[in-house]
Amino acid sequence: MLAVQPAILDKYVRGGRVRIVHRDVLSQGVRSLRAAEAGACAGVQRRFWEMHQILFQRQSEVRSAGTTEIESLLLSYAGDLPGLDQTSFASCLTDRRTVQSLQQRDTEQRQQGVRGQPVFDINGERLFGFQNIALLSASLDRSLG
Q: Is residue 48 in some structural domain?
């Protein structure tokens, strides 16, 4: 998604025609839950998309981190977000404040047949997997009339 996201943002989102909504799917066990928590905790400070980008770019590090190392790794990622209140982020992450809501949303996604990412729901049309800009643009243009 990060490869096509700038074009989608420029063409559709910034003009107010489309809204991007991120929904976590916890398909990779503990690591995906902890990464989703990091996104949610950054989101409390309106920094979700920046954390999302870091997590996406460094997903191989997250995948290879041990379950005891993952929290330290995610805390270090927060340090790469200038202006993020590190204490509040750390408290949110270590207290696991967002786990229940993330697990509930994951259950809702699975009930709708979503078991992996990315999934694009565009006015009733569902696209699974990574999509190129031409396909996404065509689908968005059709739905916007």
A: yes
